[in-house]
Amino acid sequence: MPVARPAILIPGKIHPRVVERLADRFEIIVAERGDSPDVAREAAERVRAAAVVGSFNAAWIDALPNLEIIGNFGVGYDGVDVAHAAAKGILVTNTPDVLNDEVADTAIALLLNTLRQFPRAEQWLREGKWRSGVSFPLSPFSLKGRHVGLYGFGRIGQEIARRLEPFKVKISYHARHRHEGVAYDYFATLTDMAKAVDTIVAIVPKTAGTHKTIDAAVLAALGPEGVLINVGRGWSVDEVALAAALRDGKLGAAGLDVFYDEPNVPAELVALPNACLLPHVASASAPTRNAMADLVADNIIAWFETGRALTPVPETRAVASDDR
Ligand code: NAP
Ligand code: 8YV
Q: Do residues 112 and 254 both lie within one domain?
């Protein structure tokens, strides 16, 4: 009798390369995305791995009695109930490092676009407003001479810092810990950093400790010349306070790739000329998304071939197949 191939569940859409890479070794079971699991019991019992984007909650995990590994497409794995997975001895993997350069490049592009208003200038040109004797208005802000505070100094934060160096700006950072051997000033609190710098670039994960930490007090400390860039998670920002600060001139400008309730972007932010807004595209180039897809697939393949995954998240790092 032929040996059954392990079944992989794909709840909703995922990058097609994940499926291409897995289809010859595994049975692929596609289900509807949703908060409630939607997979027939007999199929659910065959599932030993899931490849997911976004939300994968405890109900989904509980619906799959033989689940061993969840491969998350993305370095941020806040959509997966990782505590529940860990409690059940299920491994969770993410896609660190392969997107660092792309996301750091995007952060720099968004910073320059926010300060210098290049998207608005291009729109102005496309609208046919550039005529002899008529120039686009000077940008109120420049990157020159700024003091940039990185909120988050992990894999991506450090790449952003490397890219900022040639711009000759002063660089500081706030993270949970001081990083040894780093020459930039460290601030133990976000508020203290906001008082010292004029620009914050946020690249922190969605956790209990980062919820709405960029609040009215932090924005007021940045001040009317201040700029906020967020490429981490919208969860970290009090968007009501941000829109009010931008509207009232208490904050100079903001550049956002991420929002609290995606894809719903507050109308107040959309209406503001000093907000530069992107639809969560920091890693969204074909080469980088291919690399992320490969890492999702390689984690699942490695798990079934060697009993070890390549990039388990810290909370489930201790899970190994020989414990099962
Ligand atoms: P990482 O290497 O784990 O770094 C996370 C950084 O955040 C670390 O410096 C960490 O501090 C800091 N941090 C965590 N909790 C904190 C808190 N409560 N207060 C202060 N600092 C805190 O992660 P990464 O690979 O750089 O990615 C960071 C996040 O970016 C991801 O989790 C994801 O949500 C987001 N992201 C967004 C996009 C996008 O498309 N926009 C793309 C990729 C990633 P320590 O250094 O002290 O540990
Ligand atoms: C992706 C991201 O857009 O890796 C992350 O944490 O936010 C982005 O790279 C997302 O994970 C999948 O669409």
A: yes
Cα atoms in the 13 Å half-sphere on the side-chain side of 159: 17
Q: Does some domain include residue 240?
A: yes
149 and 62 within one domain: no
CB atoms within 10 A of CB 232: 27
- Residue 281 Cα: closest atom of ligand 2: 3
* Active-site amino acid positions: 233, 262, 280
pLDDT in tens, 254-284: 999 999 999 999 999 999 999 999 999 999 9
Helix boundaries (H) for 248-285: 267-270
Based on the fold, state whether residues 189 and 208 are members of the same structural domain. Answer: yes
> How far is 236 from 209, CA to CA, in rounded Å?
9
Amino acid symbol at 224: P
pTM for the model: 0.97
70's tokens: 């969840």
Question: Residue 206 C-alpha to ligand 1 middle, in angstroms?
Answer: 8
